[in-house]
Amino acid sequence: MVYVLWLFCAGLALAVLLLVWKIVLLRRSAEALRQGLRERLETDTNTFLSIPSRDRAMRRLASDLNGQLRLLRRERQRHQQGDRTLKEAVAGVSHDLRTPLTAICGYLDLLEREELSGPADRYLALIRERTDRLRELMEEFFQYTVALSSGDEPVLEDLSLNRAVEESLAAWYAVLTERGIEPAVRLPEAAVVRRLDAGALGRILNNVLSNAVKYSGGDLTVELRENGTLTFSNAAPGMTPLLAQRLFDRYFTVETGHRIGGLGLSISRELAEKMGGEVSASCRGEILTVEISFPAPPG
Length: 299
Known about the structure:
By secondary structure, this protein is an alpha+beta fold. It has helices at 2-42, 56-112, 118-149, 161-171, 173-178, 198-215, 241-246, 264-274; strands spanning 157-160, 184-186, 193-196, 221-224, 229-235, 278-284, 287-293.
């Protein structure tokens, strides 16, 4: 009787051990599926999920997940190809439109040399104004499509934000002077260094300054903080918090006395995000502030 009881207890212990081992294998398999699924969703890879368990249910689950990953990969590739084709087509169309637009501007130059009657002269001035605006929009549209269609990774190097701001303001000195704007600039004494792409940073600052000049009511304050946050603030009559939030919409246009709109800030946001930065806009009391932030890398 004791022997039978001993055999029963031994069998029960063995069964418990087997059950515990089975649970451990299932947990390992579930964790392997979780980690593998996360990695394959984050990266573009052709490898499939594998698990250490021989359990049929877990292997069927892995097989079904691999089937869904194959479908997801095909859809992702089709989307990427379609998106790339669309961007290339838009870039080509915008480039093609620039040629006839340049010819139109040339003919307008010739017409402006002729003596015209009062009404004709006014009509010509309106045509010139609209044509210049169209040329400006086409240039911004072309730059936007080029920025989006470029698959190249940013070439990062240590850059001083202080120096970049000074160089950009110097390049805009003539335009600022013409508009009667004398910017108030506040830069820290210590250099604020970040790993950025020089060309992309220059384009971001150029677009933001262009936006500031267009909206400015005659003032401009530029401030760089030691944490890598750069702000451009100016009075913008007619600006509201809602309009400020929509400035980054790709094709949103704000109509003011200067007929402002375009894609410059959208380009700036795209480029900044590629380098781990952020660009945002806010408005308080008709004071428009565009903020560019490049946080210090961790560690």
